Amino acid sequence: MPGALFEFVAHPVHLVYPLPVSTPFPVWAVIEPLGVAIHAVDLGHLVRGDRAAVFGCGPIGLLIARVARLAGAARVLGTEPLVHRRKAADRFGVDVALDPSAEDARVRMPTHSPLRLKFGLVACRPAFLNALDFFAAAR
User: Fold this and answer.
1) Do residues 55 and 106 make contact, with C-beta atoms less than 8 angstroms apart?
2) DSSP codes joined into one string, the chain
3) Closest CA relative to residue 101, chosen from 111, 90, 86
4) What is the CATH code for 49-137?
5) How distant, in Å, are the alpha carbons of 24, 80, 90 from that of 96?
6) With bands split at pLDDT 50, 70 and 90, how would you rate the model's confidence at 5?
7) What residue spans define the domains of the chain?
8) Model-level pTM greater than 0.70?
């Protein structure tokens, strides 16, 4: 099944958790992206005091930033080309949100990589190239 954007889906019962009918719909909608964020931070083995970078502050990127903060990240850096998402980033625990297509983004990103955790969730060319440059410099 290439995705599950269907009205009905057959799924093994042991993998399904029923939610109470009283659960507000917005909570239902965020459960899967939040699970992705928790899993990503868990795979990164975040240690209290770590620094993290999120390349792409869309819904999952913002949730990763928030989960990283709640798990003890000391600082979270974000890159995002869309202004409204950069503005939302501070509410999710991002200390600095940079525009990856701006000239000063590369200057403001640490090239020696004091950031142990890096999460790439990019969908546009400038952000993708920015993330690749940063990951290459951090090796």
Assistant:
1) no
2) -----SS-----GGG--PPPTTS-HHHHHHHHHHHHHHHHHHHTT--TT-EEEEE--SHHHHHHHHHHHHTT-SEEEEE-SSHHHHHHHGGGT-SEEE-TTSHHHHHHS-TT---SEEEE---SHHHHHHHHHHHHHT-
3) 86
4) 3.40.50.720
5) 32, 11, 8
6) confident
7) 49-137
8) yes
